[in-house]
From TrEMBL:
GO molecular function: nucleotide binding
Protein name according to UniProt: Oxidoreductase, N-terminal protein
Family the UniProt entry places it in: Belongs to the Gfo/Idh/MocA family.
Start and end residues of each GFO/IDH/MocA-like oxidoreductase domain: 138-259
PANTHER family hit by this protein: GFO_IDH_MOCA-LIKE OXIDOREDUCTASE N-TERMINAL DOMAIN-CONTAINING PROTEIN (PTHR46368:SF19), PTHR46368
Source organism of this protein record: Actinidia chinensis var. chinensis (Chinese soft-hair kiwi)
InterPro entries documented for this protein: Gfo/Idh/MocA-like_OxRdtase_N (IPR000683), GFO_IDH_MocA-like_dom (IPR055170), NAD(P)-bd_dom_sf (IPR036291)
A Pfam family it matches: GFO_IDH_MocA
Upper classification of the organism: Eukaryota, Viridiplantae, Streptophyta, Embryophyta, Tracheophyta
Amino acid sequence: MSENLVRFGILGCANIARKVSRAIRLSRNATLRAIGSRSIDKAARFAAENGFPASAKVYGSYEAVLEDADVDAVYVPLPTSLHVRWAVAAAERRKHLLLEKPVALNAAELDTILAACEANGVQYMDATMWMHHPRTARMRQFLDDPRLFGPLKSVHSIFCYNPGHEFLNNDIRVKPDLDALGALGDTGWYCIRAILWANDYQLPEKVTALREVKYNEAGVILSCAASLSWADGKISTFYCSFLTNLTMDITCAGTNGNLRLHDFVIPFQENLAHFYTTSESRFAELSLGVVPVPNEHAVTTELPQDALMVSEFARLAADIERNGAKPEKKWPTISRKTQLVVDAVRVSIERGFEPVEVGN
């Protein structure tokens, strides 16, 4: 590891890797060291088009990136069906692992990945960027305030977008051999993470998928929804889709207040994000309105959330390498809980929309 910077390698030239390579360049404690593709020409074009430094290595295979002794960490944006193979290979070569979501096809695969990371003492994190925006911490403060919000009762989340004909016919996220979870694994991952986040990562007791799931001709989910329930009476719902106009909402309802935001996945503006809160709401005289009017909170950030994600991951990796620290277990724990709920939704769909208990 260089004195000040964690050196990243990237496996593959997925479109999302363009965003993350920019995030690595923006981060103050990380640098781009290598890019690998099955085609060296494709890797070279990617490096040239995405601002890689002249010192970065360009490889015609994923293995070459993992074998590079100057690579400290890897970002893996490959199709989900390839994650377990290449994530384990990275961990076994002591590369810290930033893994694109959905992280695995099921919890058993993820357990294999996490076991390899633990055995080799490397940091694991999934690339759920909104978790690292300072807005998220600010919202957490409101949810944890018993006077302003009170006990959580319900969370509702939506993430959907309509990418068009070309995507729905050719993108890897609609191919059963590449990303068999479809919209559930892509947009549904965010919804489920939001619900778990609001519930302070307490797993639901049961999950029930809702009817009217939409599939493509290959049997991949294009749209679905589910309800989640807890033993203490809390309930949540989510809707995810590749067939509906862009929507990115979270609504959290407590006994004393509520929280709403409309751009939780990617803020409408990169360096400015809003959320809305109300407490002790009531109808105005003659029900001619509601008082108090919701409070609008604006949160600014110098670095965008993707760069903040890279910076936090690099900080953890550097602490391991330089100070002998242990990998932070928060991120694999959160990732695994998200995967368990994804699995439960899929099983409920397969069982004819029966309630399914969430595993451990």
